[in-house]
Structures are given as structure tokens and as C-alpha cells.
Amino acid sequence: MMVRRDFLKLMGATGLSSLFSQQYGQAEPERSRYKLNHQASPAATVRLFLCGDVMTGRGIDQILAHPVDPKLHESWVTDAREYVLLAEQANGPITKPVDDTYIWGEALEELERMAPDLRIINLETAITSHEHAWPKGINYRMHPENASCIKAASPDCCVLANNHVLDWGRPGLEQTLATLARFGLGHAGAGRNLGQASQPLVLPVPGKARVLVFGFGSVSSGIDSDWAAASNRSGVNLLPNLSHRTVESIARQVQAVKREGDIALASIHWGGNWGYPIPKQHRTFARALIDRADIDLIHGHSSHHVKGIEVYRNRLIIYGCGDFLNDYEGIRAHEAYRDDLGLMYFPTLEAGSGKLLELLMIPTRIRRFRVNQASDEETRELFDLLNREGESMATGVTLREDGRLSLQWHAGE
Known about the structure:
Strand content: 15-25%
Low-confidence stretches: 1-42
Number of helices: 10
Radius of gyration: 20 Å
Shape: globular
């Protein structure tokens, strides 16, 4: 396999320009026409870490120090430890129990190196020992004592508006919320009533800005409509639809809390698990949130693989982050989508305006239930994917000498 330095040496500036030309039908864009990552001003910026689904239940829970009862309610697998066996058959043995940092692997070093101001994840599991599963077939949970492994990554916000947080019913959600509070982990997108579920998590970045994280879920991702929070009922902050009326409702919520200089982030669990096309309705809704609801960044998730990226009015729209951590190793389905490959997203925003200045992405691969640095070949797969899927949205990526992917976009978009 060609190592990264040999690949870069072979490609050089001319080769990268040629690759860009193959994707866009033109030479690599001039700096005056495109926003490039090195334009960021460190003194006036906010850097975030974003990732997709963090699925620490089921098989992953079983390799941690305090696993729950492994009984499952799936039609084809009835014991969560079978997912551990599948992973070991695919990639080698896992020495159990693992410590709290194990599952994050090389991502922890990258987080320290990149030093984001805030870390935001989509936590897609219930944290509960409650025994009554919601009748849906696939139910994720991890033992409350294993939540220390979430704490090990120091997330500032765990977004909960997804299709697994109520897998063990409302008692399971209650224990999830109590456990996060016990470990000092902030959350958005779910709560004991609609007021709590729709309330943003306000994250101050001292001397720079406040970041407001709103969590939203859509039934298109598989969230049961009965999971919607209400004035007297716990649940998730479920979008009724993606209509103009919904945008206006969100605009009122944002207006009620957003101050001058704040950055508003909408973290949305939407769409199916597989497939690259982005529904027209999603693009329309995302742009409307920017135009009419004063949202500065869309953090989309649900797809088990990376999807294309858009920059609209200098605001970042990630339609599907892909899975960051799951227990799918060894499962023979959808292999072509490479759900084991993911990205660590590091957007840098202008403090005070929320405009995107830079997006760096670090390619990762899940192996033995652990986040690892992607190989050069796997990095190239993600490079090709982002250029292919971004072409219709006027975005592309370049491969830097340090192995990171850097987003490029048209300045007029």
C-alpha cells in the first residue's frame, strides 16, 4: 500500500489540481474566488469538534467494565455478545474489559492536538439498566456505570434527539438524563418535558462567543412519533415536519435566546441510514433555517456513512456525518457504503458572526470497537466520496500533507 508521504510526493500541487479538475471540470480554484482554510484568524474564531453517531450500546457496552444483561429482542440476534464475536472474527480479539479511553482510540490524541473550543457528539443509545424494551426490534443501551467512557472524551454536549435514546422507554430516558447529569455531561434534544427537550444547551466560549446547541429529530430517521416530548410528557424534540411553519417556530425559539454575537447550531437527526442522495426537502429546510431562523451551522446525522457537504451563505451544512463509533464490524450488509469509515469534523467559525472560515476533517476507521486513524487508501476513499458528492453543491476537498482533508467552497455560496 502506498503510504501517505509517497502519495503526496507523487501527486504534488499539480496532481492535486488535476484531481480537482477531474471532479469539477476546471483547474483548482483561485484563492480570490474560494474560501480557503488558511484564511482563519485564530484571535477571533471558535473551533468546534463535531461527529456523527456514537453508538456505545449493545456490543460495545459488553466489552466495558459494567455490561448490562446482554439479552436482545432482535429477530436474528438475541445476545449482544454475538456482536463482539462478529467483530473479533473480522478484526481480531478484544481484551475485555476495556478501560474508559479504549473506544475513543486515536481520536483522543487528535482532539488534544486540534484543541477545539467545544466538543459536540450525537449520543445514540439509552444509558439505562431498565429491563422493559420499547417494542421496536433493535434496542441500544449501555449500563449507567459505563457512562464514564463517554466522560473520557470530554464532550460538552451530547445530542439526544435520535431514534435510540428511548429504546428502553421513558423510564430508560429518565435514567439516561439522570446519568448524564451525574457525570456532568450536558445534553440537548431530549428532556422530561417539551420545554426541556426544545431548550438549547448554552455553551460559553470565554472571551469569544456563546454557542447555542438545539437538538432536533425527524421521523424520517426512524424516531417513533410517540417519542415526541409534550408539556406533560418526556421525550425528544421531534420536528412535526420540515415545513415553512416549522422553520418559523424554530425561528421564534432561536430569537428568544440568541444574543448578538452568539452562534446557533442545529443538530438534526434525519433521513435514512443508507444512500448518498440528499432529499430536496432537507436542502430546502437547512437553507431556510439559515435564512429565516438565524441558524449558523447544521450538524446533520443518521446516515451510517459520510454524505456530501454544503456551504450556504458562508454557513456550514453537514447533511450526514456518518457513524463515528458503532458495533457493526463483521455484519455482512451494505459493505459498499463503508460504515466503518468516518470523519472528525473541525469547523472554525468567525466569532460574532458564525461564518465558516475553515473545515478540517480527520479520516477515521472503526476497528475492534475502537476509533483508529484511517489508512491512506481509506483516506483516499473519503477524499473521492466528498468530492463526488459535493460537486452538485459546489464543494470539494483537498488532501493536506498531514493527512487531513480541507473543505473548499465557492465564496459566493
